[in-house]
Amino acid sequence: MWQKIKPYKDSIVLLTALLLGGVLGVGLPELALKLKPLGQIFLNLLFMIIVPLVAISVTSSIARMTDLKKLGALLVSIMAVSIVMAIIPAVGIIGLALFFDPAQGVTLDLNQTISDTAGTMDFVGLLTTNDFSGLLSKSNILALIIMSVIAGIAIGQSGEDGRKVSALLDSFNTVIMKIVSIIMVAAPVGLGAYFASTMASQDPQLVITFARAVGLFMVACFIYLTVGSTFYAWLGGGTQGVKQFWRFALEPAVTALGTTSSLATLPVTLRTALKMGIKPEIADISLPLLVNLNKGGASIITALKIVFIYSLLRLDFTVDVFMVTILISVLSAFIIGGVPGGAFLGEIFIVTTLGLPMETIPILVVIGAITDAPSTVINVVHDLNACQIIERLNRKRL
């Protein structure tokens, strides 16, 4: 029994802590408000590590990828397919969430100014800073990611010197991940305390909105995994591609559900790709990259989180916000999802980029923890679809 639930251990512990925090906030609001400094300390620790975490993790991962530049068109097609397969589910869930408002009239009242979340977005300010020191602020995470990608490409193209720098970055990355793991020991206490203080001053009906949001996500997942997967399989191999996909997709899907890890499922995914008739030279190169790059599950849940929070805060979801949401969702799938051990990085990325209150972080974490397993299933299953499409795009070269 323990072996079956072991992959979910962290999520279960975190959700239990958040549940206890929510109960404490509703039942003993005065005590819950006094616990807020504990949560603030934990979040501040995460904020202090996020800049080096993003800079080193993204730069090192891109630097390693550019070693494959000799593959040329194949690598370009892998990236292009991954980006498109992140945009499609993000747009779909945004439309669904805007039509079926998961907040249903419940308002999160934080009584504070929210920057850059209404009206016109400053895209120049989001994408760049006018000084290097600006990259050292958590408020400029998007600009930091862009510069880290550029730096990673430069390192990958710098020959022997670049390889030395890349090796050093890998060592730094190991240390950063260890720091993150130490901080995350305090996650249940820190987030539980912060969630308790948030619930102490909010409408108890807020809890019900989580069920609506998760229910909406499950409906979207079912549609995307059935209709979306069939469409992708048809793009990759026509009617025969659809038959082959549905004949073999169950094993990696079940494995992903049990492990909640795309990486742990990779051996099964590779074996399944070969059973489907995908050429070994495509599967062996594409799937290890797609594990980090093609994360439609991360994209869909990121977009839902943003729409959900905007609905709770009663903010206008403008065209500018829509564009930034798509960008954040793609980056969450394309880059953030590939950062190993970067727990809560997605939530912090959302909050800092959109200028949302810190009190929204535990709410985003609740949704993320509950939907982690089905998101992983989407990631893994659609890696096979992506492999089919990539093989078709590169058929002449093969």
UniProtKB/TrEMBL annotation:
* Molecular function GO terms recorded: symporter activity
Q: How does it sit in the membrane?
A: Multi-pass membrane protein
- Listed transmembrane segments: 41-62, 74-100, 135-155, 175-196, 216-236, 248-270, 296-313, 320-342, 348-370
Q: Among its keywords, does the record have DNA repair?
A: no
Question: For this UniProt entry, what is the primary localization, expressed as one broad class?
Answer: membrane
Q: Where's it found, cell-wise?
A: Cell membrane
Entry's Gene Ontology cellular component terms: plasma membrane
An example GO biological process term is:
dicarboxylic acid transport
Give the record's keywords alphabetically: Cell membrane, Membrane, Transmembrane, Transmembrane helix, Transport
Q: Which SUPFAM superfamilies match?
A: Proton glutamate symport protein
Provide an example Pfam family for this protein.
Answer: SDF
Q: Which InterPro entries match?
A: Na-dicarboxylate_symporter, Na:dicarbo_symporter_sf
Under which name does UniProt file this protein? Sodium:dicarboxylate symporter
